[in-house]
Design a protein that fits this description.
Blueprint: E1 4-7, E2 10-13, E3 18-24, E4 34-39, E5 46-51, E6 57-59, E7 67-72, E8 77-82, E9 91-97, E10 109-114
Parallel strand pairs: 2-10
Antiparallel strand pairs: 1-3, 3-8, 4-5, 4-9, 5-6, 7-8, 9-10
């Protein structure tokens, strides 16, 4: 069982940047694909970005070119660098495996982008 804890969210103006972190309770080296997800008010949770154990990345069209996902297997941590933030990026951001496992959902971290 892995526990995932997200951090790094906050309030930022449009055009600003944030870096989210996802800390795992044990080694994530063996987990092939991990992802960042987000859920905005009144909307379904959606996949934002995913990364393989070897570092191959994939992004939702809405964040392509603005967000960058990375992972440090030695530190059991995954990151999401978010630049050029837009108000529509406002959501609670979660990390999980991909495909996700329900038991791994954490509390998430709130990202609010003001216009």
């Amino acid at each position: 069982q892995v526990q995932l804890v997200e951090s790094g969210g906050g309030l930022v103006q449009a055009g600003g940047s944030l870096r989210l972190s996802c800390a795992a309770s044990r080694s994530i080296f063996s987990i092939n694909r991990m992802g960042w997800y987000r859920q905005a008010p009144g909307k379904q949770r959606e996949l934002v970005a995913r990364i393989t154990r070897g570092g191959i990345t994939d992004y939702a069209d809405s964040v392509k070119g603005r967000f960058a996902i990375s992972r440090d297997n030695a530190k059991n941590t995954m990151y999401l660098q978010m630049d050029s933030l837009k108000p529509e990026d406002t959501a609670v951001y979660y990390c999980n495996t991909h495909p996700y496992l329900p038991q791994y959902w954490g509390r998430g971290t709130q990202v609010t982008v003001s216009s």
